[in-house]
Structures
1.
Amino acid sequence: MFPGELGERVRLLNDQPLNRRGRYVVYWAQVNRRLQSNEALLAAVELGNYLGRPIWWVESLPWPEQRRGLRFVRFLLEGVEETARGCWELGIGYTLLVEDEAAPLQELQRLLRGAAALVTDDYPVPPVPERTREVLRGITVAAYAVNASTIVPMRRFARREYAAYSMRPKLLKVLPNYLVPLPFREPRVRFQEDSTHTEIHPPSLLLRWERLGGAPPSVTFRGGRSAALQWLERFLNDGLQRYSAERHVPTARAASELSPYLHYGYISAREVALAVRSQAQEHGWDASSFLEQLIVRRELAFNFACFTKRLDSLEALPTWALQTIARHREDPRPVVYDIDRLEAGETHDDLWNAAHKELLLRGKIHNAPRMYWGKKILEWSAGPEQALASLLRFHDRYALDANDPNTYANILWCFGLHDRPFRERPILGTLRSFSRESFGRKIRADRYIAEISALAAGVHNRDRVK
Ligand SMILES: Cc1cc2nc3c(=O)[nH]c(=O)nc-3n(C[C@H](O)[C@H](O)[C@H](O)COP(=O)(O)OP(=O)(O)OC[C@H]3O[C@@H](n4cnc5c(N)ncnc54)[C@H](O)[C@@H]3O)c2cc1C
């Protein structure tokens, strides 16, 4: 039923049959909110065409995102009108479910009673697997999970890889089979149910969260497919050529800024990699350092999430890292901040404060100061558990690219995951460490600090796309 590459990405989740009397195939877009280059939607369309049924795209404003507050709700709602319009043009039904805390998934289960099958995203990070299991408990139709988040299907690897050096050759060997444009198929049958809720009114929905609060909207990022494509365009025309030389300098604006869009599935890594490769080939540029991040590092994080039980625990660390952390647990710490003091962004270190401010204002931190920021949280916390709790909380409350495999893999990278031992020092032991002086020079910290203060004062907005 699922030909070629698609077959490798699809997992049957239950032993229920296809409901031949069902009126539609539901695509529950938990993660991948795009109509193009979406393997999960393609699988739903293949299934619908095989059964002679239309597709119903169901997207929710999930309860966990609502709990995180205005910043996240707004980023999601900014994308829905465009998605709904795209669905309508293709003859796909569209519904936005605003989940209720008491019974978040009930409405979806009700709607699945009339379905021939359910298709959703295969995503290895909570709460997606738990929410999927919860829905499965209440339905009697076949359900499929489709890996639409990685370029090479994550389950093609048999186990957790140790680090980038062990993942890279395996990934690169098979990459040519997968790094090709995904075919696009239109549904053969148009959706005609009158029960579809096409009356979406994001502004009135937003009023509720404006009162409830949470982090304010990002000063830089707006949700949705068009915004994702504009950032990509900006990167192809400006950042890519300079990426390899200047990606460590936040004020150089050589990075793509795509992580929030990749996380919310407004754009796929496959599309980005193909566009980057073609632009680089056309101009004779070297795209390898960008593709290393987008493909090797990102897919290493998915591999970690796919084969690790507790992503938010130090137990996931390699033995050498656990040992060095244990040996230095009682080391005197000259500077200790508790979680609230860190959250307020008021430490003695202007570079750290600027990185934290970037998170509070923009909803992500450039990778170079982000590494420094994470490592210093470990150095300045009473112990590793407190440091982990702070990193998780700050991501959950402020980062638009959080709750992603990259979140957990990179937070734990601060504690040694996917890394190697370095020269022994107090507190961090043999974990990699960063010095304010030399690292600050390398990333041109002075310019970064000045730019973030200007951003905080509202004087200068880091080229928000329109
Ligand atoms: C402590 C810490 C926490 C982090 N938390 C997150 C997170 O919550 N979500 C997140 O997406 N990234 C996280 N990262 C990784 C990295 O900082 C971001 O992916 C990057 O800054 C996103 O900006 P960009 O899209 O401009 O990246 P670019 O440099 O333009 O890279 C393009 C894409 O490649 C991928 N990528 C880049 N760097 C990495 C990396 N080190 N590991 C894996 N994939 C990478 C991302 O998908 C990124 O969008 C974290 C890093 C650290 C040190």
2.
Amino acid sequence: MTKTQSLVLSFKDDISLTEQEGQLFLQSSSRPTMPLENTSKGLQAVLRQLSSGATEEQLMELVVQHDEEIGLPRFFYFLQKLIQAGLICHTVVWNQVRLATIVPVSRQYQFRLNEPVADQPYLLSRFAYLHQQQKQWVLESPLAHSKMLIHDWRATALLHVLAKPTRLEELCREFQELSPTTVSMFLSLLLCQNALNQLNENGKTEAVPSLVQWEFHDLLFHAKSREGRQANLYGAYHRFEGQIEPLPVVKPPMSDTIISLYKPDIEALKQNDVSFTRVIEQRCSLREHGEQPITVEQLGEFLYRTARLRKIMGTKQRPYERSNRPYPSGGACYELELYLVVNVCEGLSSGLYHYSPTEHTVEKLTDRTRELEKLLEYAYSAIAKQGKPQILIVLAARFQRVTWRYNGMAYAAILKNVGVLYQSMYLVATAMGLAPCALGGGDSDLFAAAAGTDYYAETSVGEFILGSRADL
Ligand SMILES: Cc1cc2nc3c(=O)[nH]c(=O)nc-3n(C[C@H](O)[C@H](O)[C@H](O)COP(=O)(O)O)c2cc1C
């Protein structure tokens, strides 16, 4: 068997060939209908055959049958165009068993077949991963513009062995039931998908400088939450509409112990507040707090100026409620809930509180607990123990507010919203003469335990320390 005989070409699943008044069209769910003009009888036969699949040899035979050998150069040119357009899948087959199929997922996809060398070891890329999708294994990688559907357990077994450095000849010995051509072709497809690395004499992969510092999960999140090398739905699709009710814009009260907060006079502040430029220029992170703690009145003013709810929007036509608040939020989802872990605050006992942005009140959830001590200890360490935080504000996301609305970008949007709120908090704290400091990390399991939330429904995505200034 030749190498090309182990490779079957076919149209991607979402592509169909239609015919109108003798003219052929390629139709796809993801791109405009493409008319196929001036196609010879041979090329038309090729197009029809590609719907079910054929090897390159079989396609060439069809061309010769209809157009004679003179039709072959045009066929090769035409096939290249279809491959470059990302319309063609390649499947490794062995004894009529399909092992794996490489499917283009982006416009930058390029199909290049490199032969694996016999005497050098190969190792799966640390960025490649397998997951179950529509009841089959799919191999993906944030380095790839394609995905690989795994059809047969022998392909999974080959991947298993390639998790350790392995030479082609060793693989062929281990998988004697497969032909060496098939094994080699499988490796070629993995190379084409950037899922396999050839190791050098020192047993190392050639380091790509720009990849060295990427962690797997960071690069995967980046690739999947941006458009480009992925074909998932991306944007505001409301894919659960009619099946799942969207969460209300305001979280219902969490306890009966409700404390009203001080409301500042916004009109007076508009006239007399510190200038915007002074706030921007003086803003800095302050990690030490004053001996005189922040007061509940200051806390009330801070929350009113950063996070209160000004208006609810939502119509019969657009049942997804949205709101308006002092800080912006992607899609006006306003999924972020503010929880206050109060260590010391004049006029407010220590414990855990939830902020109600509509009522401008806090609901007391618990007194000081072991979990709250741990959250405060974590925050203290995150600022290199420069000062004990007076108040730790935890930003928790009600994830389904965003996942109901957005595809592909929901978690990325939440983290952007955290950044936006951080900046508003910094600016308001600076204008009020308070000490602000954002934190880069926190324990979301610990927070869920402290607040009694379901980790998958609502937990922490950001933390912010607030207190009185030590230098005033
Ligand atoms: C997203 C984010 C995360 C941060 N995480 C921490 C942190 O975990 N610990 C800390 O001490 N400071 C943290 N900071 C504060 C930065 O260290 C600080 O903004 C930076 O050093 C610039 O200093 P400045 O804020 O005083 O201008 C964070 C700031 C941001 C915006």
3.
Amino acid sequence: MQAKLRAAVLRPLSIVCLGLVGLGAQAHEPGAHVHGAAVLRVVVDGNTLNAELESPLDNILGYEHAPGTPQEQQAVKLAVAALRKPGGILQPTPAAQCTLQKVSLASAALTPAMLGGAGPATPPSPNEPAGHADLDGDFSWQCAKPEFLHSLRVDLFLAFPRLHKMQVEVAGPKGQSAATLTESHRTVQW
Ligand SMILES: [Zn+2]
């Protein structure tokens, strides 16, 4: 009951927020569902690097419902292969010698089997506007030389051309910082 109430309260807020972004307002709720934009939260902790992606599913697949046609199913296969490929879409500073340890993908529109793995650690957020769905990704690396780790190159833009802007939040050894990445500015540094 509590969760249902919460979703009912949150849903109109997200829609209002989308409207504001459409009008060009600068401030908006982090993580709001806006097609073309995504959020990446990066945490550096000793030799562990973690990146949490929150993106409208439209950026990844071009649609936001359970795949029906063979073309839609193929889009899921290609996207999952790209997201799970080590050294593919997210590249830590090469000198830090980081090895991808875990990729966990989740979406309210796709089954865990379609996403090529077991269920997510945390269920997808239920507060997207009606008819929309997100893709959540959790990526973690172990780095042999963490003293050289100071950047992450985000090549998601190349794999998924519907994505144009990414808000990146970093919690690293020097504290917290934020950056906006685009196709032409794909590396966040800390
Ligand atoms: Zn959407």
4.
Amino acid sequence: MVHIKSLDGERAIAAARALGFEMAGVVTRRDSAHLPHFRKWLQSGLHGTMAYLERPDAVRRRGSLDLTLPAFRSALVVAHSYAGPHPATPPGDPSRAIIARYARGRDYHHVIAERLEELGCGLERAAGRAVERRAYVDTGPILERELAALAGLGWFGKNTMLIHPRRGSYFFIGVLLTDLPFAPSAPFREDHCGTCRRCLDACPTGALLGRDDSGAPVMDATRCISYLTIELKGAIPEELRPAIGNRVFGCDICQEVCPWNEKFAAPTAEPAYAPHPDLDGPTLIGLAARLLEMSGKAFIREFADSPVSRARRNGLLRNVCVALGNWGAREAVPVLERAARDQSALVREHADWALGRIRGTRST
Ligand code: B12
Ligand code: SF4
Ligand code: SF4
């Protein structure tokens, strides 16, 4: 249980740290300065099939925190590190699956929501009254990175990540909107990217478009491996499949090459993010065989507390087929032949594509 002696922003920040959040800050600004940029991004179609981002009510809500919590006075914004050893799965071993770092341990939505609830209860005890509040972690229509920059947690890198000069970018962002009148923290104003363009050059699909005239970093999400392997529910465009390599869930390349992660991303002390044995560089063949034996429901049961549940059984199996095709080894043929008879048409099509690559009947 977290104890907050008396109610002010500094003590609330200290309480957030005591709960394991490495960084925390306070925002009092209600209206988003970035909403026009967000709308332009949607209008350009750079969000692809992520329809939840373009729902008109949700777009409006991103513009003002008042629309989410009418009694809003301040938000506590926290960062929770998931940095792991670098590099984790050897990318040089194409027979093994790479799952993005953020998704190897327990589901951060659950971990952070639990802690924010604890923080909220601590604030209520200190206030001696019910506190109107709402917690978010990648779970609702608020611009979390804008709030985190305002709370002083980092700057927007050219890879679009929020980066802190002493912590890198391997951290989640959580937000607790409250009706408590805390004083705001100093926003983060500097841009530490300078002339560096490592992430732009390293992105295998050309998803990072650099900064626009306003200085905002722009991503074409429809090309991002994270989108293709997690958010996209249909077929992965054939021309992008080879660039995915052995990344079967998410992608960390533009963070791995960032000097701020090379220098400062110390492994997290959070036990909840320790890798699940099945998700720490499993063999592609073993993972495919396991998924083929599972129903969609069994998959959800098995991975209920893991971010990989978002891809569903068919989506993850689709990705593993692509990675097996990219590996190109004949020993993958038996498992791919089984996948080519799967009940899911999506899986069957990607397995056929992979078999075509291995047998040399397909060039892409
Ligand atoms: C949709 C989404 C995605 C999409 C699109 C990503 C993108 N870059 O937009 C996809 C599926 C590709 C994705 C991938 C990933 N995601 Co994601 N994703 C989100 C989500 C739900 C919304 C982001 C969004 O609105 N994008 C639209 C763009 C336009 O908004 P934005 O990224 O916030 O960018 C801002 C700037 O452009 C800014 N801006 C405007 N004008 C100006 C002017 C100046 C001068 C400046 C500096 C900035 C600026 O305006 C925008 C709004 O604030 C957020 C959670 C949330 N609710 O915010 C998580 C979130 C951004 N994702 C997160 C993570 C961890 C990831 C991955 C690392 C997962 C992985 N390993 O695969 C990758 C990283 C890929 C990358 N390089 O971004 C974290 C990022 C934490 C951090 N340190 O930055 C978030 C915050 C979730 C969380 N709560 O922790 N994601
Ligand atoms: S996450 Fe991967 S694919 Fe997406 S922008 Fe970064 S490097 Fe490119
Ligand atoms: S790799 Fe370089 S350009 Fe890209 S975010 Fe990091 S510092 Fe900025």
